[in-house]
Amino acid sequence: MSDTPRHHSVQVPATSANLGAGFDAFGIAVGRHLAVRTRERHPDLPRVRILDSDRDELSGGDDNLVWRAFVAFCQDVEVAVPDIGLDAASTIPLERGLGSSSAAIVAGVSLARALTATPVDATRLVRIASALEGHPDNVAPALLGGVVACLTRPDGDVLVRRRNPAVDLRPVLLIPTTRQATPAARAVLPETLDRAAIADQAARAGHVMAALTGAWPLDPVAAGDHLHEPARLATMPATAALLSEVRAAGVHAWLSGAGPTALAILRSHDEQGLARLQAIGREHEVTVEASHFELSGARTCPDDGCGLGGGDCLQCPRERVSSSASPRRSAAGRWET
Predict the structure, then answer these.
(1) Which CATH architecture has domain 8-164+294-336?
(2) Beta strands 158-163 and 252-255: pairing type?
């Protein structure tokens, strides 16, 4: 590789995992993003410069998750780790069940592949990212876009299948201000399920995946599961009440990842349904955001050319980073807008 790397930018979508009954197996990409750009390493700047003023808690050092993923890729493919810096900006809220950590991991491995010009396919990228995240249901849709179903093979490798969601559906995010750390949410999960619960779990999972890909209509009766939602919602009563009311209104919805965000699915032009969700959101003091399914997954572009076909691009990752204001150093020593 040249001593002067060809710098790149990447845009990675937010994701929602589980989709109800697909615990650690199903995931889908939605329209919020993390954007990261590589740059020359500068002694007066942190390894990772965080361009969001509300994310002072994130480390800018070598322990930053984007950088750790960057290094992990290089180690996996046995190439030297380029000594570069990173600039990062994000609209994915932290610890809300929308895959902020998975987006960071995917950004790191995607940039490392691009910067080192290493020919690694998407399957191997998913495997490297899954090893860092612990499971593939968020990293796979963040990389590939769309809706995915994942399983771990007996040899430890990951099998991923991806489809576009049905074109007449749109996601609506219901985002609380409270947070939920994934390790804490996993600690409350049951160790076993009885036979009837397992059978019902499989039925719900099959219904939801087929409905999201357009085989038949979604039905709120098939929402939810036995494995993770009941235990997690018991620890977050505000989200439990929100989700119960959304489903009672006839809307298919699930706890997004570990929560506390809920994700509802409406028909694309169901403005009455959206107004109903907005009213429920005001009652429960959550942000209601009509979003879209992200189909392309992680987008990577070199600084000196567009990796998406050339010309102006409305979703250019470089623009998402550069649109942040020039950073300044905070009293805590972090770089922010």
Answers:
(1) 2-Layer Sandwich (3.30)
(2) unpaired
